[in-house]
Fold this sequence. Notes:
- The protein is an alpha+beta fold.
- The strands form eleven sheets. A five-stranded antiparallel beta sheet has the order 7-11-10-9-8.
- Strand 4 (about 605) and strand 5 form a beta hairpin.
Amino acid sequence: MAAIDSLTELTSLLESWEKDLGSGKDPIPTLTRMSELMEQETEAYYKMDPDPFDGHPRRPNCSLGHLLKAAFKNDTFMDKLMTTYMRGGSRDQTELHTVACRLLLDLKPEHEYFSASEEVETIVAKFFSWAEHAEEPLRSYATGLLACCMESQDVAANFKDHNNILVPIMLQRLRHLWNERLHHREEKENERPFGHLSKSARKSLDTAVPEINTAHGSSSLTSPERSEEHRSGREDARRTPTKCLFSRSRNDSLGLNECSNSSWAEMQPYIIGVSHTMYPLSIEMQQRLIIQYLTPMGEYQELLGYMFEHHAMELIFHYIDLHETTDVRLAFDALRYLASLLCHKKFTIEFINADGVQQLLSVPRPSVAATGVSMCLYYLSYFEDAMERVCLLPQHVLTDLVSFVLWLLECSHESGRCHATMFFIMSFPFRVILDRFDMMDGLRKLFNVISTLPVLNTETPDQELPEDDTQTCRQFCRLVSMALKKYFEGHLMIKADQIRRSHTRNEGGSPLNEAAAYKAAKFAPEVIQESLELLLELMPMRVYWEPVAEFDRLGGITLLLQMVAMASEWSSYAGKAETIRTALDALAVCATTPKVQLKLCDWIPLPDNVKTPAISILLGLADGEILPEPEIQKSALTVIINCVCGPAARLGGRFLGSSTRKKSTVKSGEDVLTTMWESFRSSNGIMVLLKLLMIKSPITDADGIRALACKALVGLSRSETMKQIISKLPLFKSGQLQQLMKEPVLQDKRQEHVKFCKYANELIDKISGKSARPNMDISLDRIRKADVVAQTKITYQEKELLQLIHEHLMSKGLQESAALLQREADLPAPVAPHPESLHLYSPSTSKFNRQHSIPSTSGGPLPTTPGTPGAIRLNIISSKVQSPQVASNRTQQNGSKTIKQKTEMAGVNLYNPVAGRQDGKQPTETSGVSLDKIVTEYLRNQHALCKNPVVICPTFSLLMPHQCPNPRMRNSAPISITARQLSRSVFPPYGGMAGACENRRYVYSRFRPVRSYRDSDDDGCFSCCAFTTCKQFLGLGTYSGELKLFNIQTAEESATYVCHNSPLTHIEQTQDGRLVLTSSSWGRPLSALWSMGDFFEMQHSFEDDNYMEFNKQSQDRILGTKEETARIYDITTGMCLMTLFDEDKANHYTRNRATFNVTDDLILNDGVLWDVTSGKTIHKFDKFNPHVSGTFHPMGLEIIINSEVWDLRTFHLLHTVPALDQCQIRFNTAGTVIYGAMHQLDEDEELAENTIKSPYGSSFRTFDASDYSNIATIDVKKDIYDLCSDMSDNFVAVIENQKLEDGLSEESICRLYEVGRLRDGEDDQAEEEDEEDDDGPGMDDDDDDEDDDDDDDVELVDEDDNQEDEDDDDDDNENNATEDSGDDQDDDEDDVGFEFEIDSDSTLDDDVLFELSDNM
């Protein structure tokens, strides 16, 4: 009610002021009443005990805030107050100036209100003049307003000279006011009975300070004797035990003990302060206004001399002593002034030497002044030298210091908790502070700062909090995370030092020097990482580490995981990245213990009743999709590494310096690692790490992220299951890892790249099971040498080559030719070869030859690698991997030959794999250089690159590259289709081994477009297709939700059925042709079951299932898919029989499509295998892509998920087929051939973008279903929306859509391709003759298609260049049910003959062609 009355009265005063604005009425009474209202509400606001560091009230129920808002909202009044009422220099306006300044001071304007401008500078100049020369109270009001103005650095910089004059005056005035107050106090005490007895106990500052002449601003010392007496008094005070300055008895004497029975009237001056009034102006208020002005000035270095000259520190000590001040608000302002002075290192050191810490700890609590102490302590901890001096204080002082700060952590003021947390952030590196923090249960108090924050409450969303409160809570999360990071890093250094000492003692080494407890520990990233690795390696399995165990008991691990998960969504908070990173760094230290590692396998509750595995949270942050911050990715990877890379067997027993608690629940190290590996795998962690290995941005951090991801893979590769999976990935099968080892992403990050190469070599060793050669290590020095070699130009004299040719001619007996060459080239006379002259590739080269060879760095022979004829290439091999070739191109420059070497290696090792295999010995050194030896070595290295080299080879050619033929069996089927047909009588039924495979490759590499189908509607567009089981019609779904049936032979539209209101995405008909399923992209129902008898009518609708299919055998059930959930429906009743969903194992594929296997007893849903009978999960397959969920192989023994092929019996990864990446696959009816195409769908924007970028976005591919080898790629030059094969495998229908030039309309065609035939010349000629014929919009035959150029665009692409990417291991082929192991050996040879036999074999008889198709 009082608030409403004050606001109503202020509004009334403003209205009356506006009415009297031009009447000449005196505004002083109105302004005075406004000031009284403001001061009255300010006092009421202070009684609410707000945070003293909040400059402006922000509580909605605070009447002072409403008054301030109403005043500042009236722009006319504020402009008048700032301009007219402040100007003028006549004496009769002094009262108006005084009242205006009083009101403006009550309004508490922020420093932004005094933005630098010419008008504001004029007003500020008046403030300086009044503060220096005016009478009270205008002088004090102006001083208070200057305090607001000087908060702006721009304004303070503009009035630098004025401040240099005013600051010493204010310090003198402050001293004078303190003495005046003491005199008044003594007079009052003398009036009391027996007051003279206490007079001797209190001395005036006149005995120690100069007398102040306020008129002239000068001072003089009273006498040397009195100053000496004062100094001796201070020395006595310093020798007094410091305990009396901050003991509980001092608070008790003030009545501030927590158990005190004192009344609130007695405690109020010491807790929240006395009444707030500006008129009449008290001595305390004058001092407060002066101190408020000096506070922003204390930060400037040039004014620090005045503070020492006028003994500002001594004044502050008196002000913060509430025995003498009795006004806690004055003490608070003095503490703020002290905090600004503590910004200077010199003042801080003097403050500590003057027992300033003890003085701060003597401030009573709870009180407003105690909150002010928090800022001083934080500023005190900022300087490391100062903190070292603090740590050398007496033990009880340090104990009380930590106790005081811990009390601040639990105080009601947010700023006090904030400053206390920042104090611990700066002081945790000091051992003495850390030990006392633990002794006083500090971890629990620090944890409680964030444990009850609303933003971390999973049941209360952030939207219910005001924005200011939300930002404050997030700030506390950031600070506590930083403090926890420092806390655990401090204990990490202590524990690592203990383990290091124990290990050194056990090994008999010399003892290590222990760091002093008062010295700050260094938390460099390299030191932290080294300590983490030390703990993982040597810390006993069952050790009880008190800090981590206590934090886990409090629930801190779970809370930090919740924080990092929820903080990623704090879009409006700038410090979220630092919050997450520091929390992850704290978790990284905790994750060195097995108990916390197991904790990271638990499920973490999140808002909206969501639960997620802790390891999934870490993987999401490491992935970088939600929050692309490289530092966060590195921190998350560090936590993961600590969990999965620990030793399998740790030391047991009790570790010196730590206690152990034997619990039956603690598992062995191997069990913990197994649990972590399984949890990591179930959360699809391998996919995340593989993605991070390929990362290229941000370029400055890519190398570091790659190294950490590779290190995590090294730890995972110790699991046999993980090793088997990783060994089949393209990372190893296609040599991707070796390619990544060539060079760093950023050349300046070579050190990070060296680490990556180190971990990559370890990964190769663990996967391959072979140890690395000791002379093949990769180091920074080798990378530097390789970089030098790459930039080196190697030149040689042309006459030397002619001399070698001359010697070669002489050795062959061609004397005349040699003499002619010698004479024409002016060659010197031949000399005998020098006995010490060695081969060009020998380990040591003579001085003469060293000018023309690459320096050897490893002492081994330097081989050459084959290239184009006439060029010599040098092979510099990296450690344990096939290194990139060093290209050497011969160029002609100024009569000389130049070899330019280009290398992309991670390390240099000169090792010849060919020469090293000869007789098991190193190559012998030969003397002399001959052209024959050079050419022989060139061809030998060419032969070394053969896939299957043989000992006896035909004559090599210098003009053609050499390649040994692949091995073939005697009964292998011929490559030529004609020869295979002839050999069928000898090797029935297919003409030899792998004959069926060769027939499939022949037939399914040929596709001839024979017919096109168009929608009769002008704007119609096809979206999906399917052949009917009667083999007469082709069903096409449209964007309008219609199902249209076209006659296959005549291409006429036979029927149209309206099924949905959105584009159809899937059509499937039962084997008997009576029922058909349709699915759509949006709208309700999403799917429906229709009968196709005499009438086309809906049997059942399925509202939420976006994809449906029949079971394979009896077709009495329907399987529907809704996101990650699959449902089995009865086809008769439409009732749901079973729901298949497991949140714990869900992979969350974006295009999940549940499917039955061929026997209908298994279902693959969202990458999880289910048993239909029991409704339980059998196995979860690893996720390596975000979209495609997979399908069963018709042979029933394999599952294909995107590009990965899994064994259904062992759940092992058999091989990967990179060409199937992001393709929806279709099998032919026989199940022997796979059609793969990247479907273009508008609703999936991300996948659509990938389709456009992919080279196969407008083409479909065929694969042999027995070994997944590529057969052919058919480019249709348009986006493919769907593809289907007919029951006889003779035709393939492809929906081809293309945006027109206007970008709005779309051309849609369903094209029918005949399998096994190529377009011949007669078809092209007939098409040209009928090019102008138009048969109408309903149907088109390809011979007279008006869009003839589209048919001509169909292009066949051979797949020879992709054969090397396929997996052809013998152990994998054993799992294939229909083909021999020899099939894979013929792939490359088959492809070689394919290109040359297309024309000769394309004239085969139709009967022969279809016989081939039937026999496959």
